[in-house]
Amino acid sequence: MDIEAAKLLGAGIAVLGVIGSGIGIGNIFAAFISAVGRNPGAREHVFTMTMLGFALVEALALFALIIALLLLFVF
Amino acid sequence: MASPLAQFEINKLIHLNVGDFDISFTNSSLAMVLSVVFILTILFFGLKNLKIVPSKIQALVELSYEFISNMIGDNIGKEGLRYLPFIFTLFFFILIGNLVGMMPLSFTWTSHIIVTFAIAFFIFLVATFIAIFKHGLFKFLGFFAPSGVPKPMLLLLVPIEIISYISRPVSLSVRLFANMMAGHTLLKVIGGFVFVLGANSFIIGGALPLAFLVALTGLEIVIAFLQAYVFAILTCLYINDAIHLH
User: Fold this and answer.
1) What is this structure's pTM?
2) What is the CATH number of the domain that holds A18?
């Protein structure tokens, strides 16, 4: 297979990893919304952990993106 | 039109060579110096004439100190306050570094993996040495084999624990680097669309990508704060792990 075609295919497959991140972020914010719904007073406290959880899950999506960019532009 | 990745190029501003080493003052160094000067200016003016009822800048400095102090108190406890200068410097250096990159024609020094990896590796060494000096080498190594685990599982568990410990600086650095690089690259790509669409439709066609660009810039500023916060709080958690036997 042509190396350029293989690179493009590899990059496309690598980006499929962000599916997990999409599900994860949905889970985190669903938990946040239901926690605030049950106990509106806990909002600031839970918000801090929500932002931390969001950034951690987002990082995994960006790891997948970095591998895709690595395949496209470095190799 | 320039490539969207051209914004990450390092340009030497003042050429300096010590023997074989190239220690030129680059645009990255300039951005770092600007970040530090900005922080020091705010701290200097905030702490000049301290009053009981604070002036606005003094209130800002006090708020930032309290923010870091609460972060450390929640995550490490009282004995963690000795690391407050470290966490304070780390958080505000990365935050202002991210925000300096959002200025037009500026350079984001946090978008280079070697810089973020240097910081993350240093934090990894700090946490490891705190653990070793506090608990001794054997107890530190004993962390990778949790108690109450049957012997056959240990053979599988210990390498996994070690790998996940070693991956901490990698994940810490790649998180910050990837967020900054992807965000800025996206901004430049959409900016290119504004230009191309506007040039081919008497300017009016560029309005939609421009609106998107404005929203994205807002999101990038939020991400700048968020990533600095996550970096600092993960450092607090790693130091907490090191002090309290993980």
Assistant:
1) 0.90
2) 1.20.20.10
